[in-house]
Each structure stands twice: as C-alpha cells, then as structure tokens.
Amino acid sequence: MLSSIHTPRLLRFSNLKSLKCLSTSQSQPTPLPSTTPPPHSQILTTRKSLLSREISAVDLATTFLHRLNHTEPKIKSFLYISDVVLKEAEEIDRKIAANEEVGPLVGVLIGVKDNICTCDMPSTAGSKILENYKPPFDATVVGNVKECGGIVVGKTNMDEFGMGSTTEGSAYQVTANPWDLSRVPGGSSGGSAAAVSARQCMVSLGSDTGGSVRQPASFCGVVGLKPTYGRVSRYGLMAYASSLDVIGCFGSSVADAGILLHAISGHDKFDATSSKREVPDFASQFVASDHLDSKPLKGLRVGLIRETIEDGVDLEVISSIRGAASHLEELGCTVTEVSLPSFSLGLPAYYILASSESSSNLSRYDGVRYGKQVVADELNSLYGESRAGGFGSEVKMRILMGTYGLSAGYYDAYYKRAQQVRTLVRESFRAALDENDILISPAAPSAAYKIGEKKNDPLSMYAGDIMTVNVNLAGLPALVLPCGFVDNKSVALPVGIQMIGAAFEEEKLLKVGHIFEQTLQGCSFIPPLVADELPC
Amino acid sequence: MGSIKALHLLKPARIATDSFLFNFTKNGISSFPLAIKPKHSTAQRSYSVKSSVLEPPNIPRLAQTARISLTPQEVEEFAPKIRQVIDWFGQLQAVDLQSIEPAIRADTEGDNLRDDIPEKFENREALISAVPSFEEPYIKVPKVLNKE
C-alpha cells in the first residue's frame, strides 16, 4: 500500500490523499468527500455570531461544557475546570446587549496549561509539590486573554514542570490522545493539545522548552505555534529552562493560533527578555480559500531539512512530510533539501542546558514559601524531605543530572560545551534561512505511541524530541500543523509538519500555514470521538 | 515506533567540525545500554579536558547537593538511568568546539531592564496565605543546624 514511499519526489499530494485520507480500510477517520471544508477560525466565528446575536455566549459556553463533561472522563486533559465559565459568559452577553465594547477574544473558551499562573485557579505545573497552590497573580498572558474577552475554561494537564514528552509525567493523571485513547497525546503540553483536539475548548495556551507545544500538536492533529523567544512575556510561567522556555498557542486552525498569539505578544516590563519590537496584526493576512489564486505561494523558497527525514524516522511520517512538500510546490513554492550539520548535536546539548537550568530554577520549591511542606526538626531536612515528597522521579533525575552538569570542574565539559553547540545550531539555522524563506521538517519522528511504551526509558523518550529542540536552542518561531495521517492497524493517527522561520517572522509562517491548511483537501482533523456530535 | 536513534554512544569517535553529521542507526537505543561501560568510554574518547576529572555521577552526593532526600531504592533506580544519560551527554566531548563562542541564550532583543525602583505588590494577602507556616511578620522554619 505504501509502495510510493521510496519515490518521494514524485509523490504528488493527490496520491498521498488517496493513501492517507481516503483509505478504504476500516480505519478512522471515515472516508471524506473532497468537499470537506477547510478548518475555519473558531475565534472569528464566535465573535461574529455573538455580535450578530445569532447565539449567546452562555449558549456557546454551555455547548462546550457539555462536550467537556462528556469527553473528559476518557481524555482527562484538565486538572481543574473553572466553576465561573457561565458567569463570565453571562457578563459577556450583558456587555453585548448593552452595546459595550468587547475584545477580539470575546466569548472564546481557552484552556491554560497548569504551569501558567492563574490567581483564581490552582496552578500546580502537574506537580504534587504545588498541590492546591493558588498563585497571588495572573501570568501576563492570562491577563492578556482575559482583557481580550476570553474565558479561561480551566487548567490543563502536563508532564510535571514540563519535563516529559507524553504527559504521563503528571503527578495527577494520564491524559489520553483523543484519536486513540490507548495512546499518549504527546507532551509536555498534552492536556492543552488534547483539549483543543477534542473540542473541549476552542484554543489553549501551552509552553515549549524543547517541543512541548509542537510535538503534542502533531500527535493530536491540531495547530501548535511556538513563537520566537522574546515575543511573548514569560512572567507567570513557572520556569523550567529560562533560556529556552516560551509560551505558545494551540488552535484548530492556523488563524486561531495566530489571533491568540497576537493577543499575548508584546513587551512586558516584568520580563526583561521580552522584545519591544512591534507586534504585527497576524490576523489581517488570512485570506479566504476562495480568494486565493492558483499559485498563492509563488516564489517562496522552502528548505526541507535533510537530517529530519533520514533513517530512524517513521516511514509513513516521512511520506506525509514529502507529500506536504509536494503540496507546497503545487502552491508555487520551490522546495529544496537543506542540511543542518549540527542538527544531531542539538539533542544532547539541549538536555544538558535544560537539566542544568532546571536544577537551578527548581531550587525555589523548598517547602518554605509555598507548596508542600513536611514536618522536620531542622531546616535541611525540611528542604530535603519536602522536595523528596513533592517531586516525581523524572524531575528528581533531571535536577540531579543538572546538578552534576553544573558542578565545579564539570561546567566546562558539559554546560559550556552545550552553549557552544547552541552557537553552532544558531549559525546553521541562520545560514539555512539565508537561503530559504522557511524550513520544514516533521514535528516528531513518529505519530503518537502507546501509553507506557517509553515510560521507563528516558533516552528513548528524549530521542523523540530531535525534531524540535534545535529550534528552541536557536530561539526561532515554528508552526506545526496537521498534514496527513499514519495508518496504525485500525486507527489513523495525525502527523504534523513543522515550519520554521527566522526570528520574529511568525507572520510569514502563519501566512504559509494558513494557505497550506486552506488548500489541503480531503483531510479532516477532527477525531472520530467528537466528529459525530460537532456542529461547531 | 520510529524514534530517531540519535544516541551516538556506540561510536564515540572524534568528530571534526566540518563533518559531525551522525548516521542515525536503526538499533541505537535498544542496544545502547550495553555499550555503556565506563572504562571503555573513557579509554576511547578524546576529551578536551582531562578525562580523569570527569568522574561518573555519585547519586547520594548529588542528591545532598540538590537537597532531595532519596530513598535507597531511588538511588538504586536512578543511578543507572542517570549514568546512561550523562554518558550520552559525553558525546559532546568528542566535538571540536575550540574557537566557538558559547551562547548564553538564543538571540534576543531583550535586556530591557527596568529601573530598580521597588514597587508594592498588590496581593500581599494571597502571597502570605500560600506560605505553609507563617507567624506575622515571619515565615517560620525549624531550627537551622549546620551539620557540616
């Protein structure tokens, strides 16, 4: 069935479609007519229907809460669900009835990753050490979405402090992939990705230190956007590796991810690393598919990163990415292969930097000022026992590895070398992006794998981050959007393509991503679990 | 599933700056632990620092430094995993990075430091209510004994 895999250059998108999307086996999703409409912006639709009084914010919120309650026992994407969603919706209806001004996210239901501080909801980062912890302030991004009229639905599940790629590392629950409940949603922002995929909320916020927005977006068949380091304030994001952490967006369409990014971008005096650069209006460039000409991306130079489609990557993933590259060519792009020589060094360098920085950042969880505290008769025992009881195994191990890497005499051999590799990675991206407008690659070497499959093998899980970590080392923006499916016996699993741009060029990525998505025919990325009951 | 086998400990050979492309091997991860024999790896690698300096991690010592009280079972469970990862980190020793400047973080346009003027935090009560043990005006902790 996949005989065309080895003729990549000739694999036209239409062939891919017949392989992946119109499969005649019993696989899900069921065959779709080629007239399946492209994804639309739930944010813009919501705003339009609220302002035209077609629907009330309360009705809309009720629909989503109903679906959330129905699907949550199976998916478990939320650690906390707000009890004031309807009250906030009522307030929006009142404002609209009174013709008061409403923001660009009016009535939009938003999930927020649990490592992003919310002062009216617990914020645990998936860790027992912060069980029931309520921060005394909202993260800047949470303040932004609230000011724009958004309604925070709840806090989404995650690998403890972001350390993991499956969301199995949560101290509270394991989130399931809406496409196949026996599989992981990816991580660490697995709850945020699964919630958007299952339409439990319209958009969500996640964080991406080494791929934690992009890999779960790929696994769950949603759009994931990691902005340039500095584009979005990190104030109120619980720090894991400060030189790499960014807050990112999930949506069911590129437009939604872009509109949400616009709402949270910009300089913040509470984050000295946030950029003062002007934030473009990402939404203004989203052209409806029927207004596109035949070669809407004519002249765009696309580099396919050679190292990401070599041995070790799932063949069906490679096939999907090659299919997506062909689709870009049909849209007028010139696609060439490009090599990033330092690519494979990025993975160990990333893990050295991330674990070293985490060992320092997580020293604040000492049981004294917040979080779990054990009874002890002297201070060092209080620290040691509180941390022992509060942290899970993966977090403890990463702190220990980081402590080792930063130890006197070892710093030059590990941390400094990793920083030197970061320079190499940055330079190789710069060279590749001089020659190309954007770079493309898979978002992960495979589609979603089984729950438990990599749980006890840290290196095997770390290896899954190879596609994404280099982008964090270079601080670049990247957009992941679903581009095809992998057939896995009876279940079809989504595959995402990663588009990488130069620093602060989110606008370009969103434009390309939007056109790609609007012209990708015959694929629907709504999981069968919710497809039947979806009129939204 | 096809995860990349970018774990190159099997062949920790010296790699020149102009050719540090690694070959992804099909059998990297599963056979990987077998390849970790500390003596073998220190003997084979050419570290740019003295290899004798890089002793394998001593888990109880690290745990003490990091202020995490580990149970003996945890020490036993974590030790091989941590050694495995640290050995994997070791592949960077084989890369010639001599003239490369380290990058503290990604290129940013940050460093927009604000003036160092204290501002009053509005939600003082919530801040204090999060403290596990508080007696106005102090955060209470047990006796500080310096065992060392």
Automatic annotation (TrEMBL), chain A:
Gene3D superfamilies: Amidase signature (AS) domain. Its EC number is 6.3.5.7. InterPro entries: Amidase, Amidase_CS, Amidase_dom, AS_sf, GatA. This protein may be expected to contain an N-terminal transit peptide but none has been predicted. This is Glutamyl-tRNA(Gln) amidotransferase subunit A, chloroplastic/mitochondrial. GO terms for biological process: glutaminyl-tRNAGln biosynthesis via transamidation; mitochondrial translation. It is found in: Mitochondrion; Plastid, Chloroplast stroma. Allows the formation of correctly charged Gln-tRNA(Gln) through the transamidation of misacylated Glu-tRNA(Gln) in chloroplasts and mitochondria. The reaction takes place in the presence of glutamine and ATP through an activated gamma-phospho-Glu-tRNA(Gln). Belongs to the amidase family. GatA subfamily. Subunit of the heterotrimeric GatCAB amidotransferase (AdT) complex, composed of A, B and C subunits. The keyword ATP-binding applies. Its main location: mitochondrion.
From TrEMBL, chain B:
GO terms for molecular function: ATP binding; glutaminyl-tRNA synthase (glutamine-hydrolyzing) activity. It holds the Pfam family GatC. Keywords: ATP-binding, Chloroplast, Ligase, Mitochondrion, Nucleotide-binding, Plastid, Protein biosynthesis. It catalyses: L-glutamyl-tRNA(Gln) + L-glutamine + ATP + H2O = L-glutaminyl-tRNA(Gln) + L-glutamate + ADP + phosphate + H(+). It comes from the Eukaryota. Its main location: mitochondrion. Belongs to the GatC family. Subunit of the heterotrimeric GatCAB amidotransferase (AdT) complex, composed of A, B and C subunits. This is Glutamyl-tRNA(Gln) amidotransferase subunit C, chloroplastic/mitochondrial. It comes from Anisodus acutangulus. The gene is GATC.
